[in-house]
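User: Hi! Is it possible to get a structure for several chains at once, not just one? Here's what I have:
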Amino acid sequence: MEHLLLAQEHSAFANWLSQGIYPPILTLHSIGMALLVGLQVVINLRVLGFGRGLPIPALRRFMKVVWIGFGVNAVTGTLLFLIAPYKLVHSTLFILKLSLIASGLILGAVLNSSLLTVGDEYAQANANPSLRAKTLAVLSLTCWMAAIVTGRWLAYTTFGDIGFDTDG
Amino acid sequence: MISTIFAAEPVPTADVIALYAAHPILAWIRATQIGEFVRNSTWAFPTLQSLHFIGMSLLIGIVGAIDLRVLGVARAVPLGPLHRLLPLAFIGFGINLTTGIFFFCHDPMVYAFNNAFRLKMLLILASGLNALWFGLGVFIDVDKWGPGIEASYLAKVISALSLLIWIGVITAGRYIAFT
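Assistant: Yes, the chains can be modeled jointly so their relative placement is included. Here is the combined structure:
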């Protein structure tokens, strides 16, 4: 397995990904992130009490855009992974980032099934969710923010020495 | 250039010194405490970057949700209360303006003559003007677009533009490093 990862890391395909199409992949990864995390932020903020007047079940429609964002990032993330798979599987930061994303997705799915898909989309505009739901929302926000932080630090450590570590 | 973040402050080369000598305002910005702090820190740049992306998800998440609702995604969402989340989007913008100033001071020459950066600034300005158009043109109707009620054609045009401009801002931002 290890030598397979190393072979991929030194393959022409990895070289093409990093030298040829790296900027558009990174761009799509950022746009996907804005959709995925951005809309999760909106949903979690409403659960926490911001934006009273928004019926929480009505927000379920945003979940399909969240999944589109996740799809974009799963694909672009896999391509980014294939640039340096050997280095990444040995990076604690990378494993942490993947765990945070998995936790964020699970929390999002739990909130979705226990709150967003329950009841009439046009009702409960001023509902105040349970403490359990609010706790899940705080955890979810924490996971997504931490996933962003680990992702950014990865760019300056694992990917930094490839030389593509900069932007603003 | 920026890839030297994990090293101590690099000694500027002769051409860099000459460039800054020709642009005293940029040299002054570079010499500020902010610039010096970011250049000399090993952790400042990735930390500021993290904040820049968190601010971005707050800003574009809320603005994007409003735009998507106007365009008909999640029509059950009443636009009025969604639009009242906008102050939080401004907090996101504030985070990104502040962290952006830190990036700029860190090495003004990298940004000032970078076409992707210039385009990004123009697009942010365009987005501000577009938001102003929303404010003057359709904001008065926002509370009328309650659950299930379709927004006006003009509002949809403005929101579609808004989404395109913000996608452009992200794209131009990512291309700063490759331009």
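Chain A touches chain B through 48 residues (CB under 8 Å). Helices of chain A lie at 2-9, 12-19, 22-47, 62-81, 85-89, 92-116, 131-156.

User: Great, thank you!
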